[in-house]
From TrEMBL:
Metallo-beta-lactamase domain: residues covered: 93-295
Listed name of the protein: Putative hydrolase (Metallo-beta-lactamase superfamily)
Alphabetical list of InterPro entries matching this protein: ComA-like_MBL, Competence_DNA_uptake, Lamin_tail_dom_sf, Metallo-B-lactamas, RibonucZ/Hydroxyglut_hydro
Pfam families: Lactamase_B
Gene source species: Methanomethylovorans hollandica (strain DSM 15978 / NBRC 107637 / DMS1)
Keywords from the UniProt entry: Hydrolase, Membrane, Transmembrane, Transmembrane helix
GO MF term list: hydrolase activity
Length: 450
C-alpha cells in the first residue's frame, strides 16, 4: 500500500474511532429513562445503511496490476496532436474537467455519485480507454462522487489528491479502490509540475504545505499553459487560497478561468479576478441549484471582465487551442432553444492588444448559421447592430443590451427581428466599451468589444 495513502486511511480510522467513543460517552451520560426510550425505539425500527456508492460499481477485488498498464492512445479525430483541448463536462451541480493533448489524458474531478456514468459516457464517446492522470481537487461529493465509476472502468496511470483527510464514505471508498487496484497515489504539492506531455506545462498552485482548516481552501489548483494560451482551474478554492497563491508570488494571469466554487461569494475576490484578467470564465453549476450559484455579485464581476459560459446554460463547454488561438465550442446555445453546437474563435493577437488592467472581452465570430449575434458597434455613433441569421423571426421582447459596467441598459419592448434581419440599437459614447446582449431570462447571448 502507498505509504501516504496508508496514513490518510489511518487518520480517517482514528477520526471514526474518536467519533464512536464520543457517542458512547454521550450515551452513558444520558439519564437511564432516556436511554431506555432510545433502546425501545431502536428495537422497533430496522435501519437500512445509507448507500453512497453506485450498486453496480463494487470495488473490484480481483483486478490485476496488468490491467493498469497504460496503453498508447490515438488522439480522437477532433483533437490533433498539436492541439490541447479542455472539456468542462456538464455534470449538474458539480465539477468534472477532461484534458487531452498529444494522446495523453487527464480527468479533474467526476461530479456527484450518479454523474460518474455521465463522465464515463463522455469518455467512451471520445474513444478514451484509459486515463494517464486523475485529479481529485478535494473530497466533497460533488467533485469525487463519480470517481468510483471511473476507477472501476478505466485504467489510471496516477491518481493525484489534495491529501486532506475526510471521513465520508464516498472518500473512503475512493481511497480503497485506489489501493485495491494498485494505482500510484500522489498528494499534490505547490510548485510541482504534472508531466502530461512535452509542449504543455501544468503547474500546481495549491494546496500549500500547511493545510487550511477549511476543506475547500485545500483544493488542488492547477494552471495549464500551452504556448501563449493558459487555463486556471480553481476547484472550490476560495478567498483564503486566492490570497495565499498571489501572496506566494505565482502568476495567476490566465486566458480561461474555471471559476472557483461554482461562482460563490466565498471566492472570486475582486483583486484576484483583476490579477487573473480572464477573457473567458467558465462556471460549472447546476440549473436551479439549492445554493443560489452563481451568486449575482460574482456573476456581475466576471461579466465585467470576461465572456461567461455556464454549464447550466451552455451544457458541456470545450476549448481547443494550438497555443496561439483558441476555439470555444458549446453543447447548446444559452436559453435552451437550440440543441446544436456553436463555435466561437478568438485570436490571441486580438485579445492581447489591450493594455493590462483594461477590460478584455474577445471578439466572437459564429461559424454556424444559428443564434442572435452582435455584428458591429460604433462608440462614436452610439450604435450597435444585431443580426438574426436563422430562418424564422425572433421576438426580442425583454432582451437587454448593456455596456461594460452595467451602467446603461437598453431593454427591448415588443419587437420582432425578422429572419436574417439586422437591427440597430443606441449604445453609449465611450473611448472603449463592450456591448453585451442578454436573453429575456437574463443569460448572456453574445458580446462584442468596440
Amino acid at each position: 500500500m502507498n505509504k501516504i495513502l496508508k496514513w490518510i486511511l489511518i487518520i480517517i480510522a482514528v477520526f471514526v474511532f474518536l467519533g464512536i467513543l464520543g457517542q458512547m460517552a454521550y450515551q452513558q451520560n444520558k439519564p437511564a429513562a432516556q436511554q431506555q426510550e432510545i433502546a425501545d425505539n431502536n428495537a422497533q425500527q430496522t435501519y437500512e445503511p445509507v448507500k453512497e456508492t453506485i450498486e453496480n460499481d463494487p470495488v473490484n477485488e480481483a483486478t490485476s496490476e496488468i490491467q493498469y498498464s497504460i496503453p498508447e492512445q490515438t488522439p480522437s479525430a477532433s483533437s490533433q496532436r498539436e492541439n490541447l483541448t479542455v472539456h468542462f463536462i456538464d455534470v449538474g451541480q458539480g465539477d468534472s474537467i477532461f484534458i487531452e493533448y498529444a494522446g495523453k489524458t487527464m480527468l479533474v474531478d467526476a461530479g456527484e455519485n450518479q454523474m460518474g456514468y455521465t463522465v464515463s459516457a463522455f469518455l467512451k464517446e471520445r474513444k478514451i480507454s484509459s486515463l494517464d492522470y486523475v485529479v481529485a481537487t478535494h473530497p466533497h461529493a460533488d467533485h469525487i462522487g463519480g470517481m468510483l465509476t471511473i476507477l472501476n472502468n478505466y485504467p489510471v496511470g496516477q491518481f493525484i489528491d489534495s491529501g486532506y483527510p475526510h471521513t465520508s464514505k464516498t472518500y473512503e471508498n475512493m481511497l480503497m479502490a485506489i489501493d485495491t487496484k494498485n494505482i500510484p497515489f500522489h498528494v499534490a504539492e505547490r510548485g510541482e509540475t504534472i508531466d502530461l506531455a512535452p509542449g504543455t506545462e501544468i503547474l500546481v498552485l495549491n494546496p500549500k504545505k500547511e493545510q487550511s482548516e477549511e476543506l475547500n481552501e485545500n483544493s488542488v489548483v492547477i494552471k495549464i499553459t500551452h504556448g501563449d494560451v493558459s487555463f486556471l482551474l480553481m476547484g472550490d478554492a476560495g478567498l483564503e487560497a486566492e490570497e495565499n497563491i498571489v501572496g506566494a508570488g505565482y502568476n495567476v494571469d490566465a486566458d480561461i478561468l474555471k471559476v472557483g466554487h461554482h461562482a460563490s461569494t466565498s471566492g472570486s475576490g475582486h483583486e484576484f479576478i483583476s490579477s487573473v484578467s480572464p477573457e473567458i470564465s467558465i462556471i460549472e453549476v447546476g440549473a436551479d441549484n439549492d445554493y443560489g450559484h452563481p451568486h449575482t455579485e460574482i456573476l456581475q464581476r466576471l461579466q465585467s471582465v470576461s465572456t461567461v459560459y455556464r454549464t447550466d446554460h451552455h451544457g458541456t463547454i470545450s476549448i481547443t487551442t494550438d497555443g496561439s488561438t483558441y476555439t470555444v465550442t458549446t453543447e447548446k446555445i444559452a436559453g435552451g432553444k437550440n440543441s446544436i453546437t456553436s463555435t466561437v474563435t478568438t485570436t490571441d493577437t486580438t485579445t492581447r492588444s489591450a493594455s493590462k488592467g483594461a477590460v478584455v472581452s474577445p471578439v466572437e465570430t459564429s461559424t454556424i448559421d444559428e443564434g442572435i449575434k452582435i455584428i458591429s458597434l460604433s462608440l462614436k455613433e452610439e450604435f450597435v447592430k444585431i443580426r438574426d441569421p436563422v430562418f424564422s423571426s425572433v421576438d426580442l421582447m425583454g432582451w437587454q443590451i448593456k455596456d461594460e459596467d452595467d451602467k446603461h441598459t437598453s431593454t427591448s419592448s415588443s419587437f420582432e427581428l425578422e429572419s436574417n434581419g439586422i437591427s440597430g440599437d443606441p449604445l453609449w459614447n465611450n473611448d472603449v466599451d463592450t456591448a453585451s446582449l442578454y436573453y429575456n431570462e437574463g443569460s448572456l447571448a453574445d458580446s462584442l468589444r468596440g
